[in-house]
Please model this.
Amino acid sequence: MKRRREHTKSWLLLTAPIAVLVTFAAGGELLFDVFRGDSPYFVAQAIGQDIVTLVVALPALMIGAVLAARGSDRARLVWFGVLVYLVYTYVIYAFHVRFNPLFLVYVALLGFSLYALIGGLATTDFERIKARHTRERSAKTAGTFLLVVSILFYIVWLGEVIPALFSGDVPRSVADNGTPTSGVHVLDMAWILPALAMTGLWLRRKRAVGYALAGALLTFLALLALAIVFMVVSMALYGQAASVVPAAIFGLLGAASLWMLLRYMGGMKAG
Model:
Protein backbone atom coordinates (compact mmCIF):
# COMPACT_ATOMS: atom_id res chain seq x y z
CA MET A 1 0.00 0.00 0.00
CA LYS A 2 2.74 2.48 0.98
CA ARG A 3 4.74 1.69 -2.16
CA ARG A 4 1.69 2.26 -4.38
CA ARG A 5 1.02 5.65 -2.76
CA GLU A 6 4.67 6.63 -3.31
CA HIS A 7 4.39 5.69 -6.99
CA THR A 8 1.24 7.80 -7.24
CA LYS A 9 3.07 10.79 -5.76
CA SER A 10 5.74 10.47 -8.45
CA TRP A 11 3.05 10.93 -11.12
CA LEU A 12 1.66 13.90 -9.21
CA LEU A 13 5.02 15.60 -9.73
CA LEU A 14 4.15 15.95 -13.42
CA THR A 15 1.68 18.61 -12.32
CA ALA A 16 4.54 21.14 -12.16
CA PRO A 17 5.57 21.00 -15.85
CA ILE A 18 1.91 20.72 -16.88
CA ALA A 19 1.09 23.90 -14.95
CA VAL A 20 3.96 25.78 -16.60
CA LEU A 21 2.94 24.57 -20.05
CA VAL A 22 -0.74 25.47 -19.51
CA THR A 23 0.32 28.98 -18.49
CA PHE A 24 2.34 29.33 -21.71
CA ALA A 25 -0.34 27.79 -23.92
CA ALA A 26 -3.52 29.41 -22.62
CA GLY A 27 -1.82 32.63 -21.48
CA GLY A 28 0.13 32.99 -24.71
CA GLU A 29 -2.98 32.58 -26.83
CA LEU A 30 -4.82 35.23 -24.82
CA LEU A 31 -1.97 37.77 -24.87
CA PHE A 32 -0.51 37.26 -28.35
CA ASP A 33 -1.92 36.65 -31.81
CA VAL A 34 -0.62 33.11 -32.34
CA PHE A 35 -3.47 31.71 -34.43
CA ARG A 36 -2.44 31.68 -38.08
CA GLY A 37 -5.15 31.09 -40.66
CA ASP A 38 -7.64 29.50 -38.27
CA SER A 39 -11.24 30.54 -38.87
CA PRO A 40 -12.48 33.46 -36.72
CA TYR A 41 -15.27 31.14 -35.51
CA PHE A 42 -12.72 28.62 -34.20
CA VAL A 43 -10.44 31.32 -32.72
CA ALA A 44 -13.31 32.91 -30.78
CA GLN A 45 -14.12 29.52 -29.24
CA ALA A 46 -10.47 28.89 -28.40
CA ILE A 47 -10.20 32.20 -26.55
CA GLY A 48 -13.25 31.40 -24.45
CA GLN A 49 -11.90 27.97 -23.58
CA ASP A 50 -8.44 29.34 -22.76
CA ILE A 51 -9.97 31.61 -20.11
CA VAL A 52 -11.58 28.63 -18.37
CA THR A 53 -8.39 26.56 -18.72
CA LEU A 54 -6.27 29.29 -17.16
CA VAL A 55 -8.65 30.58 -14.47
CA VAL A 56 -10.47 27.39 -13.41
CA ALA A 57 -8.76 24.22 -14.66
CA LEU A 58 -5.20 25.24 -13.77
CA PRO A 59 -5.92 26.15 -10.12
CA ALA A 60 -8.04 23.00 -9.74
CA LEU A 61 -5.18 20.90 -11.11
CA MET A 62 -2.59 22.42 -8.75
CA ILE A 63 -4.76 22.36 -5.63
CA GLY A 64 -5.89 18.83 -6.44
CA ALA A 65 -2.29 17.66 -6.80
CA VAL A 66 -1.19 19.22 -3.50
CA LEU A 67 -4.10 17.74 -1.55
CA ALA A 68 -3.77 14.37 -3.30
CA ALA A 69 -0.09 14.25 -2.31
CA ARG A 70 -1.25 14.68 1.29
CA GLY A 71 -3.51 11.64 0.96
CA SER A 72 -6.87 13.05 -0.15
CA ASP A 73 -8.70 10.62 -2.43
CA ARG A 74 -11.30 13.26 -3.28
CA ALA A 75 -8.56 15.58 -4.52
CA ARG A 76 -7.03 12.74 -6.52
CA LEU A 77 -10.31 12.26 -8.40
CA VAL A 78 -10.52 15.99 -9.17
CA TRP A 79 -6.90 15.88 -10.38
CA PHE A 80 -7.79 13.00 -12.70
CA GLY A 81 -10.78 14.95 -14.02
CA VAL A 82 -8.67 18.01 -14.87
CA LEU A 83 -6.15 15.77 -16.64
CA VAL A 84 -8.96 14.27 -18.74
CA TYR A 85 -10.01 17.83 -19.62
CA LEU A 86 -6.43 18.77 -20.61
CA VAL A 87 -5.93 15.64 -22.73
CA TYR A 88 -9.26 16.30 -24.46
CA THR A 89 -8.42 19.97 -25.05
CA TYR A 90 -4.89 19.55 -26.32
CA VAL A 91 -5.67 16.65 -28.64
CA ILE A 92 -7.87 19.17 -30.45
CA TYR A 93 -5.24 21.93 -30.28
CA ALA A 94 -2.42 19.64 -31.44
CA PHE A 95 -4.37 18.32 -34.44
CA HIS A 96 -6.79 21.12 -35.40
CA VAL A 97 -5.05 24.42 -34.69
CA ARG A 98 -2.91 25.46 -37.64
CA PHE A 99 0.83 25.25 -37.02
CA ASN A 100 1.90 28.15 -34.80
CA PRO A 101 4.68 29.06 -32.32
CA LEU A 102 2.95 27.10 -29.55
CA PHE A 103 2.81 23.80 -31.45
CA LEU A 104 5.46 22.07 -29.32
CA VAL A 105 3.77 23.37 -26.18
CA TYR A 106 0.51 21.71 -27.26
CA VAL A 107 2.34 18.45 -27.96
CA ALA A 108 4.20 18.53 -24.64
CA LEU A 109 0.99 19.32 -22.75
CA LEU A 110 -0.78 16.41 -24.41
CA GLY A 111 2.10 14.06 -23.57
CA PHE A 112 2.56 15.11 -19.94
CA SER A 113 -1.19 15.13 -19.25
CA LEU A 114 -1.76 11.76 -20.90
CA TYR A 115 1.05 10.01 -19.04
CA ALA A 116 0.13 11.64 -15.72
CA LEU A 117 -3.42 10.35 -16.20
CA ILE A 118 -2.33 6.83 -17.17
CA GLY A 119 0.30 6.60 -14.43
CA GLY A 120 -1.98 8.06 -11.80
CA LEU A 121 -4.78 5.62 -12.60
CA ALA A 122 -2.38 2.66 -12.78
CA THR A 123 -1.13 3.38 -9.25
CA THR A 124 -4.52 4.11 -7.67
CA ASP A 125 -6.06 1.70 -5.20
CA PHE A 126 -9.61 1.47 -6.58
CA GLU A 127 -10.78 -0.78 -3.77
CA ARG A 128 -9.66 1.83 -1.24
CA ILE A 129 -11.72 4.51 -2.99
CA LYS A 130 -14.75 2.24 -3.15
CA ALA A 131 -14.40 1.44 0.55
CA ARG A 132 -14.39 5.16 1.37
CA HIS A 133 -17.72 5.68 -0.38
CA THR A 134 -20.50 5.24 2.15
CA ARG A 135 -23.57 6.42 0.22
CA GLU A 136 -24.61 3.82 -2.32
CA ARG A 137 -27.62 5.87 -3.38
CA SER A 138 -25.47 8.82 -4.47
CA ALA A 139 -23.17 6.43 -6.34
CA LYS A 140 -26.09 4.85 -8.22
CA THR A 141 -27.50 8.28 -9.01
CA ALA A 142 -24.14 9.38 -10.40
CA GLY A 143 -23.97 6.20 -12.47
CA THR A 144 -27.42 6.83 -13.95
CA PHE A 145 -26.49 10.46 -14.69
CA LEU A 146 -23.35 9.42 -16.60
CA LEU A 147 -25.31 6.85 -18.61
CA VAL A 148 -28.01 9.37 -19.53
CA VAL A 149 -25.47 12.01 -20.60
CA SER A 150 -23.69 9.44 -22.78
CA ILE A 151 -26.90 8.35 -24.53
CA LEU A 152 -28.16 11.90 -25.08
CA PHE A 153 -24.91 13.09 -26.63
CA TYR A 154 -24.68 10.05 -28.90
CA ILE A 155 -28.16 10.96 -30.15
CA VAL A 156 -27.15 14.59 -30.71
CA TRP A 157 -23.84 13.89 -32.47
CA LEU A 158 -25.16 11.03 -34.62
CA GLY A 159 -28.14 13.23 -35.49
CA GLU A 160 -25.65 15.71 -36.94
CA VAL A 161 -23.22 13.26 -38.56
CA ILE A 162 -25.49 10.61 -40.13
CA PRO A 163 -27.64 13.02 -42.24
CA ALA A 164 -24.42 14.64 -43.50
CA LEU A 165 -23.05 11.24 -44.52
CA PHE A 166 -26.18 10.43 -46.51
CA SER A 167 -26.42 13.86 -48.13
CA GLY A 168 -22.72 14.09 -48.92
CA ASP A 169 -22.47 17.40 -47.09
CA VAL A 170 -20.20 18.42 -44.22
CA PRO A 171 -21.76 18.90 -40.76
CA ARG A 172 -22.39 22.58 -40.02
CA SER A 173 -20.03 22.61 -37.01
CA VAL A 174 -17.17 21.27 -39.16
CA ALA A 175 -17.78 23.84 -41.89
CA ASP A 176 -17.93 26.71 -39.38
CA ASN A 177 -14.70 25.66 -37.65
CA GLY A 178 -12.88 25.31 -40.97
CA THR A 179 -11.33 21.99 -39.92
CA PRO A 180 -11.18 18.70 -41.88
CA THR A 181 -13.33 16.89 -39.30
CA SER A 182 -14.75 17.62 -35.86
CA GLY A 183 -12.33 16.74 -33.08
CA VAL A 184 -15.26 16.95 -30.67
CA HIS A 185 -17.20 14.30 -32.61
CA VAL A 186 -14.16 12.01 -32.70
CA LEU A 187 -13.14 12.37 -29.06
CA ASP A 188 -16.69 12.18 -27.74
CA MET A 189 -17.92 9.21 -29.73
CA ALA A 190 -14.66 7.23 -29.59
CA TRP A 191 -13.52 8.01 -26.04
CA ILE A 192 -15.59 10.17 -23.69
CA LEU A 193 -19.12 8.87 -24.29
CA PRO A 194 -18.11 5.18 -24.05
CA ALA A 195 -16.17 6.06 -20.88
CA LEU A 196 -19.25 7.73 -19.39
CA ALA A 197 -21.44 4.74 -20.26
CA MET A 198 -19.01 2.12 -18.95
CA THR A 199 -18.35 4.07 -15.76
CA GLY A 200 -22.07 4.49 -15.19
CA LEU A 201 -22.59 0.73 -15.57
CA TRP A 202 -19.59 -0.12 -13.38
CA LEU A 203 -20.81 2.23 -10.70
CA ARG A 204 -24.31 0.76 -10.69
CA ARG A 205 -22.79 -2.73 -10.49
CA LYS A 206 -20.51 -1.61 -7.62
CA ARG A 207 -17.25 -2.27 -9.44
CA ALA A 208 -14.34 -0.53 -7.75
CA VAL A 209 -12.93 1.14 -10.86
CA GLY A 210 -16.25 2.94 -11.40
CA TYR A 211 -15.96 4.75 -8.08
CA ALA A 212 -12.71 6.41 -9.14
CA LEU A 213 -13.66 7.16 -12.72
CA ALA A 214 -17.03 8.65 -11.73
CA GLY A 215 -15.42 11.43 -9.70
CA ALA A 216 -12.96 12.14 -12.51
CA LEU A 217 -15.58 12.22 -15.27
CA LEU A 218 -17.99 14.38 -13.29
CA THR A 219 -15.14 16.86 -12.77
CA PHE A 220 -14.38 16.72 -16.50
CA LEU A 221 -18.02 17.32 -17.47
CA ALA A 222 -18.31 20.32 -15.16
CA LEU A 223 -15.14 21.87 -16.62
CA LEU A 224 -16.01 21.16 -20.24
CA ALA A 225 -19.54 22.50 -19.89
CA LEU A 226 -18.20 25.70 -18.33
CA ALA A 227 -15.67 26.02 -21.16
CA ILE A 228 -18.42 25.66 -23.78
CA VAL A 229 -20.49 28.38 -22.09
CA PHE A 230 -17.46 30.69 -22.26
CA MET A 231 -16.90 29.70 -25.90
CA VAL A 232 -20.41 30.86 -26.79
CA VAL A 233 -19.94 34.12 -24.87
CA SER A 234 -16.59 34.70 -26.57
CA MET A 235 -18.12 34.05 -29.98
CA ALA A 236 -20.78 36.69 -29.31
CA LEU A 237 -18.16 39.19 -28.14
CA TYR A 238 -16.05 38.62 -31.26
CA GLY A 239 -19.01 39.06 -33.61
CA GLN A 240 -19.49 35.40 -34.53
CA ALA A 241 -22.88 33.76 -34.88
CA ALA A 242 -23.75 32.49 -31.42
CA SER A 243 -26.98 31.07 -30.02
CA VAL A 244 -28.08 31.35 -26.42
CA VAL A 245 -29.54 27.83 -26.61
CA PRO A 246 -26.19 25.92 -26.50
CA ALA A 247 -25.00 28.18 -23.69
CA ALA A 248 -28.17 27.46 -21.71
CA ILE A 249 -27.98 23.70 -22.34
CA PHE A 250 -24.34 23.41 -21.37
CA GLY A 251 -24.85 25.77 -18.46
CA LEU A 252 -27.47 23.36 -17.13
CA LEU A 253 -25.19 20.39 -17.83
CA GLY A 254 -22.34 22.10 -15.99
CA ALA A 255 -24.52 22.95 -13.00
CA ALA A 256 -25.93 19.40 -12.90
CA SER A 257 -22.44 17.87 -13.19
CA LEU A 258 -21.08 20.09 -10.42
CA TRP A 259 -24.03 19.30 -8.15
CA MET A 260 -23.64 15.59 -8.88
CA LEU A 261 -19.89 15.82 -8.20
CA LEU A 262 -20.39 17.56 -4.84
CA ARG A 263 -23.07 15.05 -3.88
CA TYR A 264 -20.85 12.18 -4.95
CA MET A 265 -17.79 13.49 -3.10
CA GLY A 266 -19.97 14.10 -0.06
CA GLY A 267 -20.52 10.36 0.08
CA MET A 268 -16.79 9.71 0.52
CA LYS A 269 -15.01 9.61 3.86
CA ALA A 270 -12.25 12.19 4.18
CA GLY A 271 -8.75 10.93 3.48
In short: The mean pLDDT is 92. The CA atoms of residues 36 and 98 lie 6 Å apart.
